[in-house]
Please model this.
Amino acid sequence: MADDDRLTIRPLAARDSFDALTALLHRAYAPLARQGLNFTAAAQDVETTRRRAAEGRCLVAERDGEIVGTVTVSGPYGADEAPWTAGVPWFRDRDTAHFHQFAVDPGLQRQGLGRRLVQACEQWAHEHGFKRMALDTAEPARALRALYRRLGYAEVGQVQWEGKHYRSVIMLKSLDHDPAGQPLREQLQTMARYHLWATRRLLSAVDALSEPDYRREVGLFFKSVHGTLNHLLVAEQMLWLRRFAEGHSPVVPLDAEIEPDRARLRERLLEGALAWPALLEVWPQERLLGVLRYQRLNGQAVELPFAATLAHVFNHATHHRGQLSAALTAMGHRCPELDLVYMLQEEASPT
Model:
């Protein structure tokens, strides 16, 4: 087992072989490479391994004299040394550490060693005063994303790295939350993850609609599928997101067609759903326990509990996803399962 007395996690030493470390990376990433995911670690040479290990503190897991796991943790990248991180602010934030070059020997995977390596990174980051930990991984790498979610990481963004055949997700975890306030934050984070998960699944189902079916009136309050999706964009991003994130109360009609282009509307809905997990990582506990002050569309001043009102945002989206599911069914299309328990089961699955 990965947690037996023969296994130790320690810093990389001068005696360690970069050839062996590179071979470990190749073995660990071979299944992903066979899926067509060209992770750097799947085929990198020894010099690349050496360079990436030198970017921070390289940790190795050793068992019976053999390196069976590794990860490198470091502080933020500098703009000059890593211009490629320009679109990923989490990798440059002074309070955020990150880890990369993470691998566990295939024979020891799913036995807890990966968890121990990540926890060692978090311990290093905490000791060095960092408040958050970030990482990136391939969007199609479902098992890796599930592992990180089980370890408390939330998806906060996406990026297309140059030369990669896939889009990557950026995941973030707070390291300095007050334990007394964790249940509330964790509940809201679960709802934010669910909101993103359900949005993705619904939009994938909507993709199957022909253009006439997508735009015709089907008896919904906002008439069409397109009209309802635009309402969700208005409510979530134009109104609630700005109220929560900026303290601003815009005036936008609830039935406004903010985005006429179907593909761009889809992108913007996903961008909005990604914003909530990121905000929940950085909002202080006192804000979650406080109030939200804003103005309704008619100018009336309102003061409501912050956390309960945020729960309303996610509930509102669930309400309209239900309407859209009914419309898809009426048009003869099969709808995805959108119940929260399906997401929880998916997250608990190792694959």
